[in-house]
Amino acid sequence: MLSGCGDAVAIDPDGLVMGMFDNRYRPDVLLVSVGDTVEFPNEGNVDHNVIDVDGAFDSRIEYGGDHKPGETWTYTFTEPGTFDIYCSLHAVKNNSTGEWTGMVATITVEEPADQGEPTGG
Ligand SMILES: [Cu+2]
Hints:
Order of helices and strands: EEEEEHEEE
Helix content: under 10%
Strand content: 35-45%
Bound molecules: copper (II) ion
CATH topology: Immunoglobulin-like
CATH architecture: Sandwich
Shape: globular
CATH superfamily: Cupredoxins -  blue copper proteins
């Protein structure tokens, strides 16, 4: 189930790309719609991964391990919500607050906007 994508990754104009750098996601805040597939290309020089704080997904399980430089993991969001993610290799959990710091990011998934209907008055 490995996707053989070794080419350079261009930034998607639709904003469906969150790059993994050393050691941060960029951008670290992303707004997408239900049904969108987000790409996580590893643009750094070391391994990274993508794990939802609440356990909604774990890229290591779905991909079969950490993502090496040049590899890309993709995930399709099927439910609305706010997904806080972290890289297990470069983030730490505060035992007091339960918050993750370091290589962390937030992806907000909204219901698709109505098509062809003007919003507001
Ligand atoms: Cu990392």
